[in-house]
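Narrative progress, year one. The postdoctoral researcher (J.K.) led the effort to move from monomer predictions toward full complexes, under supervision of the PI. The following entry was the first complex the group processed end to end, covering 469 residues in total.
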Amino acid sequence: MPLIEAKNLSKSFGAIRAVHAVSFAVDRGEVVGFLGPNGAGKSTTMKMLTGHLRADEGAAVIAGFDVADQAVQAKQHLGYSPEGAPAYGEMTVREFLRFAADLRGLADPAESVRKTLELCRLNEVAAQTIDTLSKGYRMRVGFAQAVIHDPEVLILDEPTDGLDPNQKFEVRRILKEMAARKAVIVSTHILEEVGELCTRVIVIAKGEVRCDESRDKFLARGSDLNAVFRQLTA
Amino acid sequence: MVRREFAGYFRTPLAYVFLAVFNAFAVSLAFFVGGLYESGIASLDRFFLYHPWLWAFLAPAAGARLWAEERRQGTIELLLTWPITVWQAALGKFLAAWLFLACALLMTVPVALTVGWLGDPDWGVIIAGYTGSLLCAGACLGIAAIASALTRSQVIAFVTGFLACFLLVLVGYGVFDELLAGLLGSAGVDEIRRLGLWRNLEPFTLGLVDVRPIAYFLSVAFAGLGLSTIIVERR
């Protein structure tokens, strides 16, 4: 059974058709690079998969649970970091992660917070309020709340956006470490991430899937990935 | 949820400003406008008289952040993708805000103690008055929750909430009644007067704990809570 299933997902905002009949399935061990230009429908698709947006048509299924009808069960299996990694800025990193652990009803929230701080290398800023952190740390905090419960499904909306090369390396390292046990979708428009991180690529443009194939097949399309991207999303 | 939201109020200086303003106005209005001391009566009815006005202003101020702040920060996307229902989140936020307003009210207890020191008040009536005031705060908070769910701007949430609560304060006051009587006739005014905040708080300040005003305040509070939940779910 795939851990993530998008079944014919469609969403419009007024007259604007943001996503149209998007379908795919992601199995355990897969890291899917979700590529597309700005406004292609990546975030809208992710929001429907996570249950934040209700699909006009179609269904999203996480770990066998429909996100509309069995929302709480589906979300228990899901870790999600929205674009820009929003967080409660007035809380310290430790308090924020503790809040996430408590709301998720984890058996030993203090231990989960300790492990996550260590995994995401956040110990040195654990007592700082999130508002005072650099963008790199903020993104890592967003990532940390998404993995605190060690979910089977991880959906990350541009987790490396705006990070410096060292910080990008760090986030990719953590993702690679846990990828084998999870189904992961990472949206990005950094094409180099495909080769370094992903096992499969889905390209979306104008709300429709333009390409869904293995990383190797995608990379074999040409040496200039930017040109490949432009061609696929035109 | 309740713990985070309640603590959230005290993470900014605004909470302390809020508590100070509430207390300053509650005490000043009672003593300087209501003539609590000059009346020579050991009762707090002149103190509670102004509470609908205070709550109409301060409950939307405390409630403006309920959802508007989540939208502004983008954290609503996190909260709604964590494994809790919108209803649980809304209830937690609402209870925390109500608890915060209860703290503001609790800080006015020295007024009651002063009256007790100066005279021999009926403590049952005073407790009933506090209960009514707290319920009135809950009703105003219900309205504030709707206003907050509709926008990402705390200022707009506050102004909208205040105007709606202000309308409920005006209902039951003489000038407004005359205006309504001209439009609806006296029978219509009687019905509408039942919806006024003061009309429902007044029995409590006289020591009359009746089911109808309790039902009224709780209905407004929970209708507001329910409606705000639906708005958040739909948006």
